[in-house]
Specification:
The chain has a domain at 97-214: Immunoglobulins (Immunoglobulin-like, Sandwich), CATH 2.60.40. Helix content is 39%, strand content 23%. It is built from 3 helices and 11 strands, in the order H-E-E-H-E-E-E-E-E-E-E-E-E-H. The protein has helices at residues 2-16, 38-83, 221-263, and strands at residues 24-25, 28-29, 97-99, 104-106, 120-129, 139-145, 148-151, 160-162, 173-175, 184-193, 202-214. The chain has a 6-stranded mixed beta sheet with strand order 3-11-10-5-6-7, with no helix packed on it. The longest helix has 46 residues, at 38-83. It is elongated and about 115 Å long. It comes from Sparus aurata (Gilthead sea bream). GO terms for molecular function: sodium channel activity; sodium channel inhibitor activity; transmembrane transporter binding. Keywords: Cell membrane, Disulfide bond, Glycoprotein, Immunoglobulin domain, Ion channel, Ion transport, Membrane, Signal, Sodium, Sodium channel, Sodium transport, Transmembrane, Transmembrane helix, Transport, Voltage-gated channel. Residues 87-206 form the Ig-like domain.
Length: 264
């Protein structure tokens, strides 16, 4: 009787003690929490990726738009810079052969070294005919002083026309109805006076043009070839500029598409 009581007390003592980890308590086994399925893990990963894209998309789109706008503005500025460029003064020699009865341009260009400074300019034209007399003096035929040109008395009275520019860098004149007596040496003198606070410096430029009058015009193939090459070069540069603009536009579009694919 005492043994049965002791055995019963021992069983009750075992039931009251907490079981050890992984121990078997009668017919019941302490099991771990049920495992998460692979499909549930994939769904959670997809939802996390979608949240990341939705948060990062507003940050990338403004950058792409700004990048495109900068390139387009650069192309527009390049286009206007080509078409709105200011002319440059270039000193070129005058033609020396005239045709009888035709007008003749006497080109005289004296460029300013500093175009932002506006000096007081005076222009004088002189003529000395082709004669054997060494003592032949030159004759004043044209003058530009102040705001208007003045045609002086002499053999060219009524046949000279001002063809210069407004800034007086080009001070050319034209002779109408050229005759054989117009053959000779023409001198162009440009006097510029600069007004400053303490002194007034002046600069004088002189150019000579030896003119010959012919009955018929001679064929000048060099001038013809130069003009043809000028037009060919102009067409080539225009075409090259258009190709560059199309290439840049396509490159920008391709870059934007790649950026959008990366963002999405």
């Amino acid at each position: 009787m005492s043994r049965r009581r002791q055995f019963g007390d021992f069983q009750s003592h075992l039931r009251a003690r907490p079981p050890r980890r992984g121990a078997v308590r009668g017919p019941e086994v302490i099991s771990a929490p049920p495992p998460v399925s692979l499909l549930t893990q994939l769904q959670g990963s997809l939802q996390q990726v979608r949240r990341t894209r939705s948060t990062s998309r507003p940050e990338k789109e403004p950058n792409m738009i700004t990048h495109t706008r900068v390139h387009l503005q650069t192309l527009v500025l390049l286009f206007f810079a080509v078409h709105l460029s200011q002319p440059v003064c270039v000193e070129v020699p005058s033609a020396t052969e005239a045709v009888l009865g035709k007008p003749m341009m006497l080109t005289c260009i004296a460029c300013l070294r500093r175009e932002e400074i506006k000096p007081k300019t005076t222009v004088q034209w002189f003529f000395m005919p082709n004669t054997d007399d060494i003592t032949e003096e030159k004759t004043a035929i044209y003058k530009y002083e102040g705001e208007s040109p003045v045609e002086l008395d002499g053999p060219f009275k009524g046949r000279l026309t001002w063809k210069g520019s407004q800034d007086l860098q080009d001070v050319s004149i034209e002779i109408k109805n050229v005759t054989f007596n117009d053959s000779g040496v023409y001198e162009c003198i440009v006097l510029r006076e600069f007004e400053f606070d303490f002194f007034t410096p002046s600069v004088s430029v002189s150019k000579d043009i030896k003119l010959r009058v012919k009955e018929k015009a001679s064929t000048d193939t060099t001038a013809l070839y130069s003009e043809i090459m000028m037009y060919v070069l102009l067409v080539f540069l225009t075409f090259w500029l258009l190709v560059e603009m199309v290439y840049c536009y396509r490159k920008i579009s391709k870059s934007d598409e790649q950026t959008q694919d990366t963002a999405y």
